[in-house]
Fold each of these.
Amino acid sequence: MAQNNLEVGMKCIKYMLLCVTAIFVLTSALIISVGTTIYAIYHDVAFFLYDQMFSPATFIVVIGVIMLFVSLFGCIGALKESTCLVNIFAVILSLVLVLEVAAAIAAYTLRGQVARMLDENLRDSLPYYYTYPDVTDSYDFIQNRLNCCGVDSYLDWGEVTSDQSHEGIAVANITVPFSCCAETRTQYVNEMQVEECEKLYANGCLPRITYLVYQSAGLLGAGAMTIAFIQIIGIVFSFSLATSIRKAKSERERRRWEIQERMINAYTSLSPDTETKEKKPVVYVPFHGQTVA
């Protein structure tokens, strides 16, 4: 009965550790998903960001990939009932936890620089809208996607010298890019279909892009800290399971030794009263014939 209870306990420990590693596989997928999503958002507005803004997102993706492979140690350790692999799993998980905290701190630190950085980059690049294709594409993208126009408003385009090769909208002696148009109306001129802008985006792009990047950095830091909290629970649980596996193995070996001792004692008696005496060997003397008196 005791042996059966021990086996049941070992199976419970094994399945619990498998559940923990399964949770970390899902957590790894979540980390990679969050990191790649934030990286994609930053990539869309990469022209207006510094390169260091991409570091936390890249760091989080790398951590997720590492956790995905580290989870294999937990799975193999559970299946093999190896305390060594389980401890390796917990130690590497602890190191990954430190990296996650560092990534969260970096994300929150860079978050405070977002407003100033975007304000400088937007204002400095606006005059080159008609000069460099990268500036043109970047402004058209954020104005279309974020439903905004200019830095603070469409009036900012009054300081930009227009180019006849680019399509624009004339508003109060100001040429505004067509990407600032909020509503269009289709007209036919000489049997040709022409789209005419009726309404411009009223808001500037600076507040909207700042909010987007600011919230993305906050989400990155919050996600890293939340997952780190889950990891702390997993680390403590993994070390506890490793200790339980070690104790269960020791108990199993002790019971196996007791069974062996009982089997040996069943065939060997250590009592001197029942011990069989050693028989003396019988010596046969050869007969050489009868002697004469």
Amino acid sequence: MLQGNMDRPEVTFTLAYIVFVFCFVFTPTEFISAGVTVQNLFSGWLGSEDLGFVQYHIKRTTVTLLVHSILPLGYYFGMCIAAPDKNLWYVHSANDIWQLYFTISVALPLFSLVLVLHWSRNKWGNHPISKSIGAHALPQSSWRAVSSSINTEFRRIDKFATGAPGARVIVTDTWVMKVTTYYLHVAQQQDIHLTVIDSKQHELSPDSNTPVQILTITVASINPSVKPFDIRLNSTEYGELREKLHAPIRNAANVVIHQTLSDLFLETFKSHVEVNQIYSLPSGLELEPCIGCMQVCSNTKLLRLCQDDGQYEGECQQCYCRPMWCLTCLGKWFASRQDQQHPETWLASRVPCPTCRAKFCILDVCLVQ
């Protein structure tokens, strides 16, 4: 029964349209590469971001709103073709649900058009971005003067910029900005307080197949007209961000920020080892300080546990050393022996024991109990 429903053209079209709309709105890398984005499709009208940053994003958010508001109507016309038996071409003969859907689908772009016409009045002075920028204008000035300052600083090559097109973070000498699908957040550096509020660790980044830590930082301004906003960035870019900022970043969440690839890998290394088999310390044997740092007791033992895994057969060797290293030092040793140009191979690699040189992999590292 389910298979029969899936074979119906309207069901297939519905699923395909949902996927298309999701990808078109949130623009994954594949859509960006193919040029299926609002910025690319309307590049002729939008102009150059480098020449007029603020004006570009006023136009971009406007056309984005209009295009997205038409998407529901596009589904209706698509269903007219995919399901001719529903008589959707003649709205008055369709059932009540489709008539309601059509009414809403037509109302959305009409409402958006009226809103855009309102924004465009006073030479786009009513646009939300213009108003947000105007909050930084001097008493005898206007949002256009602030816009000119932002445009000038954006053209400089020493700005900090990171993130996907729908969530870019840009920091210049004077401004901290976040580009979103429908808006542009702007805050002046001299007025802001920055706070690290969250951190998420991902074992693999979809772009580079390497561990990644994503930090969330709140930007709050003392200017009451500027609403706080969050920026997200890779922890490896944290140092570059701090160099560009005039204000310190407060770490309210006490997050340990990993600014190097080795730091990120160390967390992944520890998480993998924690799920490995536990090594029970024989009676009469006492743990000694780690010979790597001499700060904590050694708490790891190398046991060949991957002999049944075809991927590692014949590669790893049995280590007969007593526990001599802590997990942190062993993880740093493991990372230091890797090919720095190919971090995607680190998790599956083998390195020699720092004491006896017997080869081991992450599966062979056991915590001592």
Amino acid sequence: VPQRCEEDTNTFLWEINQEAPKEYAVLYDAFGKMGSNVEGGNVNQPGSLQQCHSAHSPTFSGQYCQVFLRQESVQYFVGICVPDSCREEDVETLVLYVNRCLQAFSLHNTSQGVLTTFSGGGYSSLNGIRSLSLLWIICGHSTQFSVINNLNYKDWKKTVERSPLYVFAISGPVFLAVDTFLLLGLLSAKTLMSSITRAEDKLSACLVASYIFKRIKVQPLHLFIMCLTIGLISLIKWGPYWFPLIETMMDCKTYWWANILLINNLLPVHEICIPWTWYLSLDFQCYATTPLLLYFYRNRGVFAAVAGGLLLMTTVAGVVITALMQLPVFEPSTTSYNYVLQYYLKPYTRYGPFLIGILTGIHLMTKKDQLLKRWQAALGWLCCLLLMAVLVGLAYVLRETPSYPSVPHALYQGLHRPLWALSVTWIILACEEGYGFIKSFLSWGLWVPLSKISFACYLSHPVFIILYIGLQETPIHYTDLNFMYLFLGHLVLTLVVSYVLTVLVEKPY
């Protein structure tokens, strides 16, 4: 808007907030306001034309305007009084743009769609896959954080090895769920390919910039959780098991910038601010490679060579690093510094599942209808479920840290993540084609709202676990029942708070 209009409008807005506003602030009183009997059709809000024209300041007079608005099927006008230095188009700009900013923070708007059980499109099985993976991660963290801080590790390990819940109670296989989340990069391929199609098959720099910028929308909630966690750690009077938590606050004072730049997974482990946010950096780094991969996709031969080379490199990286550093297959107590530093957090060892997700996304966007025979679908399900069971089982067979370069450990470390991603890929493809009853379960409406708040759930659930552990005055003793209740308690609090964070922080921004 012109400078004169902007200055006069700001003068008026400043004046009506004073304890004793000047007489020309009556402009506000002349505004149209909602009356009674709206249900009966009294929807227009004319305001007062005469009162508006009676207002005079040293630099401007009141000007009466009408703004026409529509809410769903109802159309109405609102009379407003503005400085006469503003033109008709300036008024429209001011009213509609303020309106949009306010509506972005409207609970009525941000709540819409969050609690719906309607998936609203294809790939409905992803809601169940995402939700189940999230529940697995929360379950694993509920135990793992306790193991790190105030749970007797040896007694716990001896107990859970005799329990059928062992697969959930120890952290190694739980983090296959992280690879499932990376596999969902297939949605990024779908999004960008759709944008390229709308742009007449042109992958322009502007399109890439817009695509990358959309991913930055995770940052407001990320930074909110970071500040919230620092505040809690600073203010709460912790119990005797608080000492690992204070390090998180000290790390944030020094390395907060790595969270903003989404590179904190490249730092040494002890320097990461809010440790569980490493995944956001890894996910963004993988996400940023999608435009380059789709650029190569124009030449199928080059694309096949690049994709195959990247998959081979990430697999070999996992094998070599594990063999040279004699890393464990997984480390529930996270005592292996090299395991986390050199292997677990890094994009060069975790890229495989994301790349498979990109390939899956391309396939889903370009596939032609080609139904499998019933025995072929049954064989696919058998191989998929058998492979997943083998991958989880081998994690326990190879759970002891080798004291020498171990070929089985190295091969498992390099191969198990892409193989797990391939198994989940079959589930997605089979569900999309309608093979198997599991689609009904994964497409269940209950998964939809949980999927929509899953990002907030991932960021917030460690806060509740940390609060619970940090306030304990005695060690936590493991029993299946105790930790099941602990998991359910963390889950309920996480769901409630995550809904609030989604509608108040994530969705508005």
Amino acid sequence: MVEPPPAPAKVYYDGCPGCAMDRKKETRKGVPYKELIFVGIISFASALPITSLFPFLYFMIRDLHVAQREEDIGFYAGFLGASYMVGRGLASVFWGIVADRIGRKPVMAFSVFSVIVFNTLFGLSVKYWMAIATRFLLGALNGFLAPVKAYSIEVCQPEQQALGISIVNTAWGMGVIIGPAIGGYLAQPVKQYPHLFHDNSVFGRFPYLLPCICISFFATLVFISCAWLPETLHKHKGLERAVEMVEGSTTQESTEPPKKSLLKNWPLMSAIITYSVFSLHDTAYVEIFSLWTVSSRKYGGLSFSSKDVGQVLTVAGVSLLVYQLLAYRQVNKILGPIHSTQVSSALSIPIIAAYPFMTHLSGIRLDMPLYIAAMLKSVFAPQEQRGAANGIATTTMSLAKAFAPAGAGIIFSWAQKRQHATFFPGDHMVFLVLNLTEVIGLVLTFKPFLAVPQQYK
């Protein structure tokens, strides 16, 4: 019997941080807690600014005096909400290339530094153009997502890599949940906590600075901790691929048939299209829900404060986290990813349709159905729409998330000007458009629109 050829010896290069990490992984036993804790913290810090503005977005646009009428606030709020995702979508590929050239550590450190600078400047904005510019630059210069996922894989043994990615996603989700709480409870501190903050203080002049300062302070601590973060990129003075070629190359690679173009792979592309529609819907929902709850009752809103809407969004986010930890795997195991998405989407439609009727309620009669509806809507958001080709999926998702706030703001502003229309007056029209988007996503989960791979049948 012919014995298989011995595995090629691993080659390490002195002075290469990637080789140093590989050596460390060979001798280390157990999970790299230090590196993964940092991965979680940086993911959390980078996620906080994304949703922290939604509870006070309506009030900020009002105070910037860019909208001539109250009904126009939603129009300008939509573009401000979209500016971050536009910046991130335009620069995400660039930061991935940079991280592959100069290293993961400098890109992640620079991303955290950009949060410190531009999130603080956003809180200091006194003009609409300044708020737009700082949010755009915050998204464009915060290129941590691709490097931090690569880093979480490179510090782990193969059997631990799924844990590394899950820590990134969990920490990101926690940041998205806690962000609205920070924005809601700390915005307009002079109005919310007059016994602690005076009108003549810096927070009286800049009522939205406090939540931004708190996030920036946390990001500063994370930035300082980057000094102790080891690099993982291989740097071999022109031989960047040497280790990978020695470790993983085989003669079979040259004989593999050419792969079919991703754009011609309909099962993949149909999943990405469906994913993008749901991403558009979910992002537009958060923006519309925030604008609707804080807008005046005379325009079909609930006249909530920033603290009220931040609290609702936080409770909804926590309910989603609890559902994912305790129930999602069982539901997904019983129904499967496709059917669970279809059921969740179908159940979301009556919840969204019920929102505009809640304007006739008040007190506990409003709080109970609103919180229950928000929690259920958060839980029913489709959980299993991650595309196999991350590059295309991330790009289309970013475009959808960039378009959603602007489109939602325009529709919200238009709807508030038609409070006495016969056909779906006021905010009834806003939630109708949201439901139509949900219906489109639901339809796309059925044949022939969605080509289901054999393993999901």
